[in-house]
Amino acid sequence: MKRSLSVPTAGAAAVMLLTFTAACSSSSSSSSSSTASTGASATGGATSSSPAASGGKSYKLSFIQGVAGDGFYVTMGCGMQAEAKKLGDATVNIQGPSQFDATLQNPIIESVTASHPDAIMIAPDDVSASRPPISQAMTAGIKVVLVDTTLTDPSGAVSQISSDNTAGGADAFAAVKQLVPGGGQVFVVNVKPGISTTDQRTAGFAAAAKADSKFSYVGVQYDNDTASLAAQVTLAELQKNPGIVAIFATNLFSAEGAATGIRQAGKAGKVKVIGFDADPDQITALKQGTVQALIAQSPYVIGTNAVDQAVAALQGKTTTPKIGTKFTIITNANLKSAASQAAIYKTSC
């Protein structure tokens, strides 16, 4: 999961769609300093690549994003479109909710299931609430590939493809050590409990921090994916623990709010912020000094792997139950490097 977890609107079911072109540029996401591998501004949409001219079966695939328009999921969709075109025997339809919210995503899952594609590639918006409609898709005979986020009970999915978010959290702490080698207190600003990816990032960061005697982990605060609340919890934590030297913010709004809280506390430049993901807004924040490091995922690679696993399952071939993708640590010092430039997320294919 990348960003855009807004406060749910009761009864809302608005879905935004964006049409993707069939010819996506192929830009591979990232080589990494980490040991391994899953987190999108317009909305998801539908397009298709050309089926094979050989007359063989053309598989209909659907990608249901965690949230439409987020650069992370846009980049993932580009990878899917490119891989489907490369294979020549698959088409990909892309949709997503306007917010990272299971109450908005579930009706999309049900609608897509009713259209009966051959396979659904989906980033579940909740580890539990997303399970019932996904189970219904499986019962209908649709192959399901989980991408980025997952479920508490992922049984029945032909593959789970994501970054190793625990390792991503550890990478965030590695960035802290580079920025503040002398040590000190550190804490996390997270979205909310119950999101598999950000929970794992927090756990990975906390474990790495606790294992280093130079640092003291003082805990996690939640902001419900709002920059204003992130600023409030950051300011309160800095007042409570004046020895904090760095903050790991698990997504864009958390990072924006943490930076604001740091300024309000009069500690700008003294407390470092490590963010997650690398869409253009976050790269701008890095250049402006709002954050000092970013942990970029490999969404394009997640997308190509998802199509490969879906098609393999449809052809009765062996699939890989779990696939992990890599990270790149981006700082101002290495921003112009080929690896960092390749890791920046797309806004369109």
Tell me briefly what this model is.
This protein is α/β, with parallel strands linked by helices.
Overview of the molecule:
- The chain is an alpha/beta fold.
- Helix content is 37%, strand content 19%.
- The chain has helices spanning 71-87, 102-115, 131-139, 165-179, 196-210, 227-240, 252-264, 280-288, 299-314, 338-343, and strands at 15-16, 59-64, 90-97, 119-122, 143-147, 159-163, 184-190, 215-222, 244-249, 272-276, 293-296, 322-325, 328-330.
- It has a 7-stranded mixed β-sheet, sandwiched between helices. A 6-stranded mixed β-sheet has the order 8-7-9-10-11-13, with helices on both faces.
- β7 (184-190), α5 (196-210) and β8 form a beta-alpha-beta unit.
- The longest helix is centred in the N-terminal third of the chain and has 17 residues, at 71-87.
- It is elongated.
- The two termini are 20 Å apart.
- Mean pLDDT is 85; it is low at 3-55.
